[in-house]
Each structure stands twice: as C-alpha cells, then as structure tokens.
Amino acid sequence: MPSQMNPYLSFRDNAREAMDFYQSVFGGTLESSTFADMNMADDPAEGNKIMHSALTTDNGFVLMASDTPSGMNLNEGSSYSISLSGNDAEELRGYWDRLLDGGQMDLPLERAPWGDLFGMLTDRFGTSWMISIEGQDS
Question: Which distant-in-sequence residues (6+ apart) come within 8 Å of 106 by Cβ?
Fold first, then answer.
C-alpha cells in the first residue's frame, strides 16, 4: 500500500456526533471503537468516548477522529484547514452545502483570482474547510 495522509481530528466529548455528521456529508463506511471497547477507559465515565474512528468514503477519502480524555490537554484552534478540491462541481458544492449546515461561512464560494471557485467555512464542530472547484464558471 502506498503512503497516505489522513486528517485526524480531536474532540473533547463529541467525536461520535461529529463523525456521524461527516458520514452524512461524505457517505462511506464509519468504524468506531470506544475506550471501553479497547479496555483503555481509566475513568469509567469516559468508557463510551471514541478512542478511534475512521470514515472511509467510496471516492477514497479517509477522515479519522477521537475524543480526548478529560485528563489530557486539547488545544483547539484554527491552525489547520481540510482542503477539498477537484473539478466535479456538483459533488464539491454538495459537500459545501452540507458542511455549512449549522456552520459559518468564512469566505463565500466564488471566483478566486486564480480562476477557480473557492470558499472557506467552519463547520458546526469548529473544523475549518476550504473548497476549490477547478475550472468552473460561477
């Protein structure tokens, strides 16, 4: 298997909800294991939190996530964005619309100086996304 780069998101208590949302956006197969499933729950109250979750879509996207136990630091911030790009305007606009549901538009999806349609948003879970549709009319 060739090397892959897979975004891995960290949440405090809502990885399951976030990954269910991302599955509704992208489709695909979602597999999740809790801390209790893996016998890794130091605190029984955290047993049902997600230790590892992976969403694999039909078009090859892999998005991973987990909950961060309360005893570990979670640095939330805006130092990253997940970028989706391509020339399938219908598919990418669909992702845009579904990710924007409950989120915030940071930059409208419109013609960029380099000629593509480009927009930025922050979804309801605080994840930043960039969408670029190559060679499309507005």
Answer: 119, 120, 121, 122, 128
